[in-house]
TrEMBL record:
Keyword field contains Repeat: yes
Naturally occurring in which organism (per UniProt): Coffea arabica
Name of the protein in question: Protein GLUTELIN PRECURSOR ACCUMULATION 3-like isoform X1
Keywords: Kelch repeat, Repeat
Gene name in the database record: LOC113725692
Xref: PANTHER family: RAB9 EFFECTOR PROTEIN WITH KELCH MOTIFS
InterPro entries linked: Kelch-typ_b-propeller, Kelch_1, Rab9_kelch_effector
Length: 509
């Protein structure tokens, strides 16, 4: 049995002004960013404030310079390049970037362009064969250095599940006939060629659900003489959450999945956005959480993530309210960029911790603060999370917690000394399915209250911390959550289970 290797710890570092020269792209989402060899990254299009973009920005990797080339070219309507758009596909073949589809306003596009990045010339292409219908939110990948495969998308009326292969020399499209079991139609997914297979993950499917399935398509390599066919892959490990609008970036032996959004489920009518890093380890063939520092970029979707050597570069995206224009590096711990985080690097989220933990550092200014700081350092050690004094002060007492007090007053507490104990007993006896929406915020705060209060009760403020009563092996994954809106629907069972464990070995007031 193969032993999996240890994943390198990576660090998120917000890019500094000294990292780039030239004119940086403005904020956007739904854009594309492709690597042209190892020399440059080309960013095209996108959307900001309901405005669709057609601008082109290029990052010269060697000179660390952003610039906007003066492009030439003519389209069928006399324009120099493609019309403004977002949610299109862009694939690089050698020095050429191919663009297809997308959305401009309420219209789905079906035009086809190529940019020669050696002379910065756009050409609108007249293609042949089985022409794909206009669509947005499709996904595509290069097959070697000649062909492109595209899967799925949304045509304005239905989710699509068709597969097209483009020969970039003959400019002929061919719809691939695939027999057997097919993935559900979808859009907003990713499609990545790995060896001889196209891997498709996630997306939004027919009827609206956001999916977390992984599929592999064979039969794309002519020399292999395989019949095209789909296989659903159910890999071991810590699989990512169901998502749409995420990115999958190839780097070394791993595929890195970052960001995306999913439906809020019980918690909200709004979507929930992600900022965790999950890798598909191609060696051990399993999902693994990438160990990272706490200072993560804001959760987002429809961003871009490119690979520059051992570094990843994140740009842009949307979180349901704001469009981002920030740049972030994700680098291994030995990278010089990681050294910017000072000699004392932030707490690292280990690979086996399924949590996104806020990095709230604190510095004690007096003896009392130093004592409290040491208490929280001990709590940090016990729970294996990053804990801040600010967060502790935000967790109010039961009597000040109006939602908690109101909910407690509604519970039948005749058998208990107080409504508080009656409510805690109610939760102790509840199943995840029986928890109502109105209970989630009070439940989360009481969970955090029990962690803090009962740890502090076990600490001698005038001496060294003593045994807290918490099992050494236990990790409380939701202490860092500031608001129940940050929870995912699949967090509820584990949150309730951890809460019940707290009640089992913590003496109630």
């Amino acid at each position: 049995m193969e032993t999996r290797s240890q994943l390198k710890t990576h660090y998120w570092v917000r890019a500094s002004p000294s990292d780039f020269g030239g004119t940086l792209p403005q904020p956007r989402s739904g854009h594309t960013a492709v690597n042209i060899g190892k020399s440059k990254i080309v960013v095209f299009g996108g959307l900001v404030d309901r405005k669709f973009l057609s601008d082109l920005f290029v990052y010269d990797i060697e000179n660390k310079l952003w610039f906007q080339p003066e492009c030439t070219g003519t389209g069928s309507d006399g324009q120099v390049g493609p019309r403004p758009r977002a949610f299109h596909i862009a694939v690089a073949i050698d020095c050429h970037m191919f663009i297809f589809g997308g959305r401009s306003g309420g219209k789905r596009l079906g035009d086809f362009w190529v940019l020669d990045t050696d002379i910065w010339q756009w050409s609108e292409l007249t293609s042949f064969g089985d022409l794909p219908s206009p669509r947005d939110f499709a996904a595509a990948s290069a097959i070697g250095n000649r062909k492109i495969v595209m899967y799925g998308g949304w045509d304005g009326k239905k989710w699509l599940s068709d597969v097209y292969v483009l020969d970039t020399i003959s400019l002929e499209w061919m719809e691939l006939s695939v027999s057997g079991v097919l993935p559900p139609p979808r859009c907003g997914h990713t499609a990545t060629m790995v060896e001889k297979r196209l891997l498709v993950y996630g997306g939004r499917g027919g009827g609206g659900p956001i999916m977390g399935d992984l599929w592999a398509l064979k039969g794309l390599i002519e020399d292999e003489n395989e019949s095209p066919g789909w296989t659903q892959l159910k890999l071991p490990g810590q699989a990512p959450a169901a998502s749409c609008g995420h990115t999958v970036t190839s780097g070394g032996p791993n595929l890195l999945l970052f960001g995306g959004h999913a439906t809020g489920g019980w918690l909200s009518r709004y979507d929930v956005y992600h900022n965790d890093c999950v890798v598909l380890d191609r060696v051990s063939v399993q999902w693994r959480r990438l160990p990272t520092n706490n200072d993560r970029p804001a959760a987002r979707a429809y961003h871009s993530m490119t690979c520059i050597g051992s570094r990843y570069l994140l740009f842009g995206g949307f979180d349901g309210k704001s469009t981002y224009g920030d740049f972030w590096w994700l680098v291994p711990e030995e990278d010089p960029i990681a050294k910017r985080l000072t000699t004392s690097l932030p707490t690292v989220i280990p690979e086996n911790k399924n949590a996104s933990i806020a990095n709230d550092s604190f510095i004690s200014q007096d003896k009392e603060g130093q004592t409290e700081g040491s208490i929280f350092s001990e709590l940090h050690r016990k729970l294996e999370v990053s804990v801040s004094l600010n967060h502790h002060k935000l967790i109010m007492d039961e009597l000040e917690d109006r939602e908690f007090a109101e909910l407690a007053s509604q519970v039948n507490g005749e058998k208990f000394p107080s409504n508080v104990q009656a409510l805690r007993h109610h939760w102790k006896m509840s199943s995840p399915e029986s928890i109502q929406l109105k209970e989630l915020s009070p439940l989360l705060r009481d969970y955090q209250r029990l962690i803090i209060r009962h740890h502090l009760n076990k600490v001698d403020l005038k001496s060294q911390p003593v045994e807290s009563g918490f099992p050494e092996r236990e990790t409380f994954r939701y202490y860092h959550i500031r608001n129940a809106m940050q929870l995912r629907i699949d967090d509820i069972p584990s949150l309730l289970a951890e809460y019940k464990e707290l009640l089992s070995y913590v003496k109630e007031n």
